[in-house]
């Protein structure tokens, strides 16, 4: 299990709530991706459902329900049922919420409490969010909800209003370096580059190493600081990303692009260039939010990333006057 130095505050708040007179039934675990929020949710849920004198299973717990991306279609469902690899859906669907709600009609198995973890809750489709809202409004006795979210603003306001927010701070560079040094898969010469690109996210740093993103980071930096607005930098970037990149690689590239653009925007001294960087960052955030839910062609998506980065170059910044 990973030792998360940024979990001290959340654990203090969670444990204080557990011994309080009334534990809130809905929690939003908020923070950027890669901060260990799901690992925290599982450990916190186990602490909540445990009862003195009742043996708790070491593995999967019958009173902890976890919802995440399910099978994409009937074919994927059959593959999942057969224990085979399957393609996952791009969102958490309403039928998953309704199936969970049916389970809530029965009593917990080992004690008086049950926890539902939804990760990532900000990727619930609209129908799923509306269905979940009914459970949050009238939660079954002894049932608690933990919504892991990387972008809390994407949750329905009515869901946010019914939950208590537990915030997870980014990791410091020193904390990231210590965690990466301890991770065999992240060893190598790119740790310093991974830390710069990760912007406080251990998950992003691991993806940087696992996906070999150092050359892509250099290409992104060249695109937003250079003046070449031809198609060549975009085409080169698309080639490096790969014509058939999977969702994990595309997510890692978009996170990397956002981090690099944000870093340059903070240090840029030219007003026009900084404005272009800020606009590119906003559009990258929007594109990253849309990508899981839209049927984007991978090649076109990589070119769009390149186009947004090219627009942020100094030569393409809007002029004053």
Write up this protein.
The protein is of the alpha/beta class and 321 residues long. The chain has helices spanning 8-18, 37-49, 74-81, 94-103, 126-137, 157-160, 173-182, 191-198, 202-210, 214-225, 231-241, 247-267, 271-290, 298-311, and strands at 26-30, 64-67, 114-118, 143-149, 164-167. It folds into 2 domains: 5-167, 3-Layer(aba) Sandwich (Rossmann fold); 211-316. 51% of the residues lie in helices and 8% in strands. The chain has a 5-stranded parallel β-sheet, with helices on both faces. Strand 3 (114-118), helix 5 and strand 4 form a beta-alpha-beta unit. Helix 7 packs across helix 8, helix 11 crosses helix 14 and helix 13 runs antiparallel to helix 14 (298-311). Residues 316-321 have low confidence and may be disordered.
Poorly predicted ranges: 316-321
Task: Give the overall pLDDT as a whole number.
Answer: 90
Percent of residues in helices comes to 40-55%
CATH-derived topology of the largest domain: Rossmann fold
Provide the number of structural domains: 2
Radius of gyration over all CA atoms, rounded: 22 Å
Largest sheet: 5 strands, parallel
Q: Could you tell me how far the N terminus lies from the C terminus, measured between alpha carbons in angstroms?
A: 57 Å
**Shape category:** globular
What is the number of strand segments? 5
Content of β-strand: 5-15%
Q: In what order do the strands lie side by side in the largest sheet? A: 2-3-4-1-5
Quick structural overview:
By secondary structure, the protein is an alpha/beta fold. Helix content is 51%, strand content 8%.
């Amino acid at each position: 299990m990973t030792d998360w130095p940024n979990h001290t505050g959340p654990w203090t708040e969670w444990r204080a709530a557990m011994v309080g007179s009334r534990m809130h039934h809905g929690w939003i675990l908020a923070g950027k991706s890669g901060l260990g929020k799901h690992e925290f949710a599982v450990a916190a849920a186990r602490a909540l459902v445990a009862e003195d004198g009742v043996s708790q299973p070491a593995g999967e717990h019958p009173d902890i329900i976890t919802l995440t991306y399910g099978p994409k279609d009937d074919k994927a469902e059959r593959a999942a049922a057969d224990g085979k690899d399957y393609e996952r859906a791009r969102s958490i669907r309403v039928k998953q919420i309704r199936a969970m709600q049916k389970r809530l009609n029965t009593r917990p198995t080992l004690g008086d409490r049950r926890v539902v973890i939804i990760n990532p809750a900000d990727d619930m489709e609209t129908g799923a969010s509306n269905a979940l809202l009914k459970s949050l409004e009238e939660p079954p006795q002894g049932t608690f909800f933990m919504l892991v979210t990387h972008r809390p603003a994407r949750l329905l306001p009515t869901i946010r209003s019914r939950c208590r927010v537990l915030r997870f701070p980014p990791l410091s560079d020193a904390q990231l370096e210590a965690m990466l040094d301890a991770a065999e898969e992240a060893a190598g010469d790119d740790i310093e580059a991974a830390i710069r690109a990760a912007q406080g996210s251990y998950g992003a740093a691991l993806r940087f190493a696992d996906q070999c993103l150092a050359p892509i980071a250099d290409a992104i930096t060249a695109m937003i600081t250079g003046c070449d607005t031809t198609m060549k930098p975009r085409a080169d970037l698309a080639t490096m990303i790969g014509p058939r990149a999977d969702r994990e690689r595309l997510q890692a590239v978009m996170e990397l692009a956002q981090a690099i653009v944000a870093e340059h925007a903070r240090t840029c001294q030219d007003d026009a260039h900084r404005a272009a960087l800020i606009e590119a960052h906003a559009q990258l955030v929007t594109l990253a939010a849309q990508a899981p839910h839209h049927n984007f062609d991978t090649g076109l998506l990589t070119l769009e990333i390149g186009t947004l980065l090219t627009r942020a170059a100094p030569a393409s910044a809007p002029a004053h006057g």
